[in-house]
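To the wet lab folks,

You asked to see what we're planning to order before we commit. Fair enough. Below is the target structure as tokens, and below that is the sequence we designed to fit it. If anything looks off to you, flag it before the synthesis order goes out.
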């Protein structure tokens, strides 16, 4: 009930409040597609699946089938937390991994959200990565920050923050993408107006972004549909970092199941992000956006590496 009221509140406020950040301009992916001449690298960004019952598992199963049948081969899948419900068991995790593996995705990476933390050590039994870690692909550097508390807000320890800060400062020559469950307070995303949807003590990260270049920050947690959360925001006060919310693979409050697909192209300094509606099995072309990366993407060896 609390989550339902929260989402209704967010929808109401989003019609009244104009963000101080710059909303990213919509453009047509299809119009530009004919100019793509080199290899593309596709990332499926999804979040907040956590089916509350066996019946609700069909939503994720349908999303996986949609991507497999209509998108085809995907190079990387990234899940921004809340994969499963609180206090999940072995059956839940086995179902999840079995379903996920049906998608034609080469590499999978994930972080824990607050619901995953509530499941305890079993999450890391099935996903045995560190609470914070990095993955490189060519000159892309993904920095993953798991939620470390069962609270509704996203808690990231000072140890994890200092690791993230060092990685940002030590990799200025790379295209840096941060993935967290909650969003920064000053991201400008619609959900950031509610304390339970942001990273606690966001100021630590915001201070670094004022000095260092992070191309993109991806988050989940708010469950707001893309038509409400918008394509994303670019905060000039935070070094021009682009903030994008992934939305939710669920049918909460009669909202459709949604995620985003990222398209990088060798030699291009532009990232295309598309909004995928899995319920209707189509792209919302009005939300196609292109993001300047600051430097051209290079796939290098074409293999992902965990750091």
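Sequence we intend to order:
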């Amino acid at each position: 009930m609390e989550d339902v009221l929260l989402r209704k509140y967010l929808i109401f406020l989003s019609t009244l409040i104009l963000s101080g950040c710059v909303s990213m301009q919509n453009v047509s992916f299809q119009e530009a597609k004919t100019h793509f001449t080199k290899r593309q690298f596709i990332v499926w960004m999804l979040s907040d699946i956590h089916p509350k019952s066996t019946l609700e598992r069909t939503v994720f199963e349908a999303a996986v089938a949609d991507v497999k049948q209509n998108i085809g081969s995907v190079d990387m899948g990234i899940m921004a937390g809340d994969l499963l419900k609180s206090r999940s068991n072995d059956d839940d995790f086995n179902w999840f991994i079995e379903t996920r593996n049906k998608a034609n995705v080469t590499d999978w990476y994930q972080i824990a959200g607050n619901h995953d933390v509530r499941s305890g050590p079993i999450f890391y039994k099935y996903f045995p990565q560190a609470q914070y870690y990095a993955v490189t692909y060519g000159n892309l550097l993904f920095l993953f920050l798991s939620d470390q508390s069962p609270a509704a807000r996203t808690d990231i320890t000072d140890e994890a923050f200092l690791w993230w800060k060092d990685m940002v400062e030590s990799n200025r020559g790379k295209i840096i993408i941060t993935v967290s469950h909650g969003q920064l307070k000053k991201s400008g995303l619609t959900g950031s107006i509610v304390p339970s949807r942001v990273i606690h003590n966001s100021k630590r990260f915001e201070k670094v972004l004022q000095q260092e270049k992070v191309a993109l920050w991806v988050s989940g947690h708010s469950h707001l549909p893309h038509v409400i959360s918008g394509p994303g925001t670019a905060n000039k006060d935070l070094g021009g970092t682009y903030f994008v919310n992934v939305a939710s693979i669920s049918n909460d409050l009669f909202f459709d199941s949604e995620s985003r697909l990222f398209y990088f192209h060798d030699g291009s300094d532009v990232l295309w992000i598309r909004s995928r509606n899995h319920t209707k099995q189509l792209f919302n072309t009005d939300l196609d956006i292109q993001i300047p990366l600051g430097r051209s993407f290079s796939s290098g060896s074409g293999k992902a590496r965990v750091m």
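Structural context that might help your review: Residues 1-24 have pLDDT under 50 and may be disordered. The CA atoms of residues 30 and 64 lie 23 Å apart.

Thanks,
Computational group
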